[in-house]
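Before going further, learn to read the protein records used in this course. The integers have meaning only within a learned vocabulary of local backbone shapes. To see the layout at work, look at the sequence and tokens printed below.
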Amino acid sequence: MLVSERDNVVVQGLTGRQGSFWAERMAECGTRIVAGASPGKGGREVGGVPVYDSVAEAARQHRLDVSVLFVPPLAVRKAACDAISAGVRKIVLLTEHVPYQDVMHVLGEARDSDAQVLGPNTAGLVVPGVASVGIMPGFAGNIFRPGSIGVISRSGSLGTLVALNLVSAGYGQSAFIGIGGDPILGTTTLDAVRELDADERTEAVVLVGEIGGSMEEDAADYIATMRKPVVAFIAGRSAPPDRRMGHAGAIVSAGKGSGTSKVDALTSAGAAVVDLPSGIGDALKAAGVLPGVAV
């Protein structure tokens, strides 16, 4: 999932502290926030943005392309389905600890409506110089600047570190896609890799993975077919088996999802795997991708 300067965004939970704070930060990045939705609080304005009781009501007044949710875990199912049924086709689920049954219901509704879901438990996405949707510091020029490197990360904090290292090495980003740290996700690593492979502005892809699950291994077969260079960093490689580290999806069990298996799969696919995020710049240069930012 990517966003453009033409996409209209509705913020669900805009009247809350987090929703209002991050809506202001997103607007600083160029994001077109045209409406908010908070049940029972319709008729208000937050930072000049009109608030409606539902996305369905907002959709009668505005064209809505993207919804970002700042709502509690048990409110996600109803809020997301409100957006999907209102015709919004890009849904960004920031919330952590959403019940798995609710996640599966939302993903089913999205599939039936041909909608894309990012998350849950995602930090969002950034297209530097264009828009930011979520809680990433897209407004910080020392972390995000327009360029040609696409970044995929399960973790928002690790993604921020990698973006910072890219800028420090002289690179800019075409896009950042935070897929989320939960075991059940609307956008997988493979989905995001395909998106960036098809993106004309993206010259190379940086993949920030972590132990647990098989998403990086699942993406390896596709990566082997790519002409664009791929550089990867896998976090948690020293974690003991059967112990969750950080994200709900970061657990190695029955020999699956280990750092070794991910490194082996990605290396066999032709990706350059680095031991530290600080090595990403050198790996890109070795792959023939020269530093530079978009003007």
User: Anything to note?
Assistant: The chain has a mean pLDDT of 93. The chain has nine helices and 14 strands. The CA atoms of residues 16 and 70 lie 8 Å apart. The radius of gyration is 19 Å.
